[in-house]
Amino acid sequence: MSSQAVSFLELRTPAAARAEAAKTWPVEKVLELFNLPFNELMYRAQQVHRQHFDPQEVELATLLSIKTGGCPEDCGYCPQAARYDTGVQAQKLLELEQVLAAARAAKEHGATRFCMGAAWRGPKDRDLDHVEAMVRGVKELGLEACATLGMLEDGQAERLAAAGLDYYNHNLDTAPEFYNNIITTRDYENRLDTLNKVRGAGIKVCCGGIVGMGESRRQRAGLIAQVANLDPYPESVPINHLVQVAGTPLHGLDPLDPLEFVRTIAVARITMPKARVRLSAGRRELGEAVQAMCFAAGANSIFYGDKLLTTGNPDAEADMALLEKLGMRIKHTQVSANMAE
Ligand code: SF4
């Protein structure tokens, strides 16, 4: 029996149905938002956005891969999985100075948050020694520090918190009933467990997912419902548009209608009013007009550069030109400040 069928049967039991209805955002309610006429959905999302944020303001977060490729997991979208032939070469963990040079460049380009990503199933304790030094160095530069290192074991979140980590990113990726179509080497519960550990250690949560992986609208609603029902919901919600990479199992899918992506942003904004909703992977493929619609739908954070930034980085310049064209501003924060929202 497929996991989808199991999930459906479970929901038909009275107890499961009651539990679902008791959630802040039952899937049906989220789906109703998705099904609104486009302009109505945009209007509602803008109302919510303006209650909590300056709609002209966008946060810049820079992502650096501190350990690229060679990952043992099988996430069907990911070119860093060792088992897919994507041309990505496995590299060792970057040296501290390389990471701090990238963080300085990110700060010079206006980033307020620096996110370090490692292609691991989870960090080994000896890896964490290095990551802790990176976190301390990033914080000393006056940036917020974020890390995405995979699943965490007991005690690891506390170590990262002690080093000063502000955010930990761990995405749920998709709806529970679609999850096994995308990843088989870890399950949904593992992800929720890591998110609990992060919260328990007092680190802010960055958690979202990817759309355009062949899921249905209901399953997109299922993803948003899962994230919105985390208690509390994440401070940061990255919404990725699948970037299809040759060699990965998801390469060659019919692309998602861009308006459906905009709807997903709007629904995330409505269901998680105070979260930073971040446009993440796939942003450039969407083009300027769709990105502008995403900002209008309530997105207010972007990943800015996905590799070591250097002066004159053309992607960064294109981002700045777009923000200027839209009359938007970059959010500036003090590292020690809580989320302004
Ligand atoms: S765990 Fe992360 S790096 Fe590894 S395959 Fe999945 S998405 Fe890629």
- Mean pLDDT over the residues: 88
- Shape annotation: globular
In the predicted model, the low-confidence regions spanning at least 5 consecutive residues are 1-10, 308-313, 333-341
Assign the structural class, choosing from mainly alpha, mainly beta, alpha/beta, alpha+beta, or little secondary structure.
alpha/beta
Helix content: 40-55%
* Total of DSSP H or I helical runs spanning 4+ residues: 13
Oligomer designation: single chain
- Please give the radius of gyration in angstroms: 19 Å
Q: Which distinct ligands sit in these coordinates?
A: iron/sulfur cluster
Folded structure, characterized:
Strands 1, 2, 3, 4, 5, 6, 7, 8, 9 and 10 form a ten-stranded parallel β-sheet that branches. The protein has 341 residues and is of the alpha/beta class. The protein has 13 helices and ten strands. Helix 3 packs across helix 10 (217-228), helix 4 (38-52) crosses helix 11 (258-271) and helix 6 (125-140) runs parallel beside helix 7 (156-163). The chain has helices at 3-12, 14-22, 27-34, 38-52, 96-108, 125-140, 156-163, 176-179, 188-200, 217-228, 258-271, 283-296, 314-325; strands at residues 57-67, 113-118, 144-148, 167-169, 204-206, 209-211, 236-241, 276-279, 301-303, 329-330. It is an enzyme of class 2 (transferase).
